[in-house]
């Protein structure tokens, strides 16, 4: 995509980058020549990704930390600012959720879901905006979910609620930035994927659903499919703001 050339050597932060969708996005951004900071709790996975990509000329920074801890997020932004300067592209991908009926759900699981999926990406946005306002162009992309577009999602109530909340404040952020005196050069978008072949479903079900179960009804999306959506958002001209990309496997509807 011709429009991606302008992002070369600019700085991106991808949260939840140690596997699945986050890893796929981090790899794709490094592939177009961006400097990519990867944040996740699993340092060994981040180290392995960086080591694999480094011989190919990729510039990748390992930022081990937990997005639900404010001190970790602040440390990551300080490290990026010190080494590369302010972030140009923020990809809020880190997420969590547990499958359960509301009547037997765990309070701590609910709190963790709202913290990681709603408050933590807002914290990352707050810190990213400190440097983005001075940029000639910047992009924020929040990873939502097809579940955030559904009326009901049995056994996933708080995950669904968190994605509704993420969508709500993402739209409000876009309006707030547009209302700034002189407008804004910061674009705000969401990507709402359907079933994607990652470890999330197995983790959320505590091992009840394995990776292969994705293939029971659909050929699932892959992390590369979501990364392509990110690249499309970045490739559009600066005056074009893609607000939400809703994508799913063939056969999976709302």
Order of helices and strands: EHEHEHEHEHEHHE
Pairing-aware structural class of the strands and helices? alpha/beta
Report the radius of gyration as a whole number of Å: 17 Å
CATH homologous superfamily title: NAD(P)-binding Rossmann-like Domain
Q: CATH topology, which one? A: Rossmann fold
Strand order of the largest sheet: 3-2-1-4-5-6-7
Low-confidence region ranges: none
List strands and helices in order, with pairings.
Layout: E1 11-15, H1 20-31, E2 35-40, H2 43-53, E3 59-64, H3 70-83, E4 89-92, H4 107-132, E5 138-143, H5 157-178, E6 186-193, H6 200-204, H7 223-235, E7 244-247
Parallel strand pairs: 1-2, 1-4, 2-3, 4-5, 5-6, 6-7
Please, could you describe this protein's structure?
The chain has helices at 20-31, 43-53, 70-83, 107-132, 157-178, 200-204, 223-235, and strands at residues 11-15, 35-40, 59-64, 89-92, 138-143, 186-193, 244-247. It has 254 residues and is α/β, with parallel strands linked by helices. It has a single domain (2-247), classed as Rossmann fold (3-Layer(aba) Sandwich). It has a 7-stranded parallel beta sheet with strand order 3-2-1-4-5-6-7, with helices on both faces. The chain is globular and about 50 Å long. It starts with 10 loop residues before the first strand and ends in a 7-residue tail after the last strand. The model has no long low-confidence stretch (mean pLDDT 90).
């Amino acid at each position: 995509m011709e429009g991606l050339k302008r992002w070369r050597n600019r700085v991106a932060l991808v949260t939840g980058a140690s596997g699945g969708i986050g890893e796929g996005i981090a790899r794709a951004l490094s592939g177009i020549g961006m400097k990519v900071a990867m944040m996740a709790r699993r340092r060994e996975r981040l180290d392995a990704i960086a080591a694999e990509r480094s011989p190919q000329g990729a510039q990748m920074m390992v930022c081990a930390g937990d997005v639900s801890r404010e001190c970790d997020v602040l440390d990551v932004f300080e490290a990026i600012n010190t080494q590369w300067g302010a972030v140009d592209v923020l990809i809020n991908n880190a997420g969590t959720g547990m499958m359960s009926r509301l009547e037997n759900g765990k309070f701590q699981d609910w709190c963790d879901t709202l913290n990681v999926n709603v408050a933590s990406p807002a914290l990352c946005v707050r810190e990213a905006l400190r440097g983005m306002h001075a940029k000639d162009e910047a992009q924020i992309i929040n990873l939502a979910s097809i579940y955030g577009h559904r009326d009901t999602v049995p056994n996933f109530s708080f995950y669904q609620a968190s994605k509704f909340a993420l969508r709500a404040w993402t739209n409000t952020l876009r309006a707030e930035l547009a209302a700034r005196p002189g407008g804004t050069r910061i674009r705000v978008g969401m990507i709402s994927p359907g079933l994607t072949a990652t470890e999330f479903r197995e983790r959320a079900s505590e091992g009840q659903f394995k990776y292969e179960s994705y293939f029971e009804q659909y050929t699932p999306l892959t992390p590369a499919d979501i990364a392509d959506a990110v690249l499309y958002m970045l490739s559009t001209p600066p005056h074009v703001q893609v607000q939400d990309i809703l994508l799913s496997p063939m056969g999976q509807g709302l």
